[in-house]
Each structure stands twice: as structure tokens, then as C-alpha cells.
Amino acid sequence: MPHPRGAPGARPWRTFLAAALLAGAVALAAAVPAAPASAETRLDPPSARALAIRLARDGQLLAARAIALALLERDPGDVTALIVLSRVERDLGAHRAAAAAGRRAFRLAGNGQDRFAAALATAQALSSDGRRTEAQLWLRRAAHAAPDEQARRIAIRDFRYVRARNPLSVQLSFGLTPSDNVNGGPTSTTLVIGGFEFVNPDAVPLPGVIASAGADLGYTLDISPATALRAGLALSATAVALGPEARRKVPSARGSDYGDSEVAVSLGLSHSLSGGRLRLGLQAEAGREWSGGVPFMDAARLSASADLALGPATRAGVRVEVERQDRLDHALRSADVLTFGSRLVHALPRGGALEVDLAFGRTDSRSAAIAQRSVRLGLGWTLAQPVAGAETTLITRLELRDYDRPLFAADPREDIGTDLGIRMVFRELDVMGFVPRVQIDARRNRSSVALYDTRSLSLHLGIQSSF
Length: 467
Hints:
alpha+beta, single chain, 27% helix, 9 helices, Serine Threonine Protein Phosphatase 5, Tetratricopeptide repeat, Porin
């Protein structure tokens, strides 16, 4: 990685001292048995950089360090010398000094190759020092600065290696969702009960924008090579801004009435069998939800799951979950929920993938608006070829809900919910391993009770990790 730099304007005594140090360093390298016997005692800076790189690669760390320090005495901004120093200090066990040299090299680097090498050296020093979360950030920088695809693959490979050994995981999510129905309003303001007609002019769909943010923090403790214990904390929140049309329809409506938030803690145990082909999981979770800034529900969940590789291209999973929901707004609507779900993912021979999920649910509650049985079928098809430069997935879902007891009608309520969506991930617009995601969803719920007949169209803009 030659990176010639001069030192114009240096004081004569400083230049003489740097030359003496460089000569001494080269003499030290020549004195090492593994070094070439004909090593010169004086080298110009490009040759000295090349020698330092070669010595570091051959494991002659003290000699490489001496040359790097001599070069930096001559020019404190010598990026190549800083990168060599970072790698050598790391191999010598001086991890903090190695990270400091790498950071400085990254700040001074002027081209992709040097920035990539500096970020990679910094990440390796931080990982060796046990600071794996910081190392992951620097590996994202390395991937972003990679001068070619091979270098990027190296950074991604190292990122996955560090992530697999990092007990702390952090996942962040952000999104903006313009929607024509942020409040889930019905399609009709009229409700007929026992032959009498009731009109609620405020029960209308309101257009607006939903802003969302979330964080999922986890800490994993490896009990054995096949068993791990994970503690988690999940936070999420949405804020709603209503448009002018919404304020015209319902002047008293406020966006803060429709925002929500949630906090949940979890503890999970996972175990792998058959060399990782089968993964078993057990998780307990408890949390609270707020709606419009007011406590809405406390929930506790217990789930068990199994995930099995059926072949090199196919993976299947099943999940059973029991949940207790204690409603804080209306105690009558508290419920016990049992859900059984299954999922199949298959990579298609010509590229792309097909995903199928099927779920059955049973909800017991004293409220006729809550107690129900449900079945949901979802299909996802990731296309083999990009569309408009984006990885594209087509999504469809069908959900049937049968309620136990009549409400606002002579017969029990029946709902048919349908979702159609398209998700596009623009992997070419990668910034530090994050890529933009766009999803369009059209939802329709047909209900035997007009109050619950809804439709909505929304556009979700977000970001996700590309590796």
C-alpha cells in the first residue's frame, strides 16, 4: 500500500533525526535473521513503507514497528505507516494503541483503498480488545469504503464473524408511512342495530403520516456450544401527523390520539441439534403498550419454536404461543390467546425464494368484540431478477375471523381480511451496510358488521441492514 508523502518545511534537525531513526530501523530489520542479508541501511520513504509491510507480514513485528515509527517521525500523516503500526501493535497485544493508529489513518486517508485498510485494521484492533460492537461499526465503514467487490466481501465476512461472537446485539428500525387511514376508520359512518340506523360522523378514515422507530437490544450467554440464553429489551413508538383533509373531516382529531408505544423484556433459551439443522427455542416475554399516551394493555407471552433444515434450499419452522392480555382501558376486553403457526421457506432453483406461513388462533374473552377463532395464510415470493434495480418481493395474506357471540347484529360477526403488498429493497444504494426499503400495502377487511368494514392504502419507507 505505497502512499508517498513529503514533509515540506520540516526543521533541519527534525529531518536529520527522522533520517537517523529510519536508518536505525532499517539496520534493526537487517539484523533480524529472517530479513534479507543484503537489506540496505538507507531507504527512501516508499521503499521503507514496502519493507515495513513485508516485515509485518512475515511476523517481524518489532522491526516493522520501528520502521513505521521512523516514517511517522518524518511525517505524522503517513497513512501507510499508521496502518502498519495499527496491525503491528495489535499483534503485539497493544490493542488500544492499535485502534488509535487505525482511527487516525482513517481520518487522514484520501482514497478508498487506504480508508478500507484503515477501517479494517481499526475493527480488528477493537475486536481483539473485546469491543465487538464498535468493531462491527468499523467493519460497516470498511464495507462502505471497499475499493472493489472482493474487498467488500472480506469486510462482510469479518462482520459476520464478529457479530456471531458478540454477546450484545443492537437492531434499530426507522420508518415513515403515509396512509389514507391512520386511525383504522370504517368505510361507512352508518351502523344499523335492530332496524335502527345510527350515524357517527367522526368514524371516518383519516389520512396522515405515521413515523415509527424501534430498538431491539439483546445479550446472549453461551451455556454450551449448542445452547444459548438470551435476554432482550424491545422498544418501539409511532407518532402520527394528520393531514389537512383529516382536520377538515374531523376538526377535533389530533395526531397524538393515534400514536402508540411499547416496551417489552424477554428471556429466551435456544438449543441446536444435528449440527445446527434443528434449532429449538423457548421464550418468555412481558410488556406494556400505550395508545395515545395512555396505558393500554399489559401482556405476558410464552412461546416454543422449532426450526428445521429440510435440505440445502428449504427450511421449515413451527411455533406455539400462549398470551395473556390485560386491557387497562376496558377490563372486559382482557383476553387469553393461543396461536399455532408454521412457516416454510424455499430457495427457487433459478433464483429468488418462496415463503409460506399458516397460523391458527383462538382468543377467549368476556367481550363479544374480542372472543374469536382465526386462520391466516400468507405467501411471499421474492423475484429472481431485480425490478427497477431493487430486490422485489410480492406479498399476499388472507385472514378469516369468526367471533363467538353476536355484537351489533343478530348473528356473530364474521370478517375476511386481505392484504396485498410489494416490498422493494434497493441493495445498490448501500451506505455502511444499510439499504433503503420501500413497501406498498393495500388492506381490506370485509365484515358482517359495518363498523368493522375498513380499507387502507399505505406506503412504508424504511432502512434495513444488507448483511
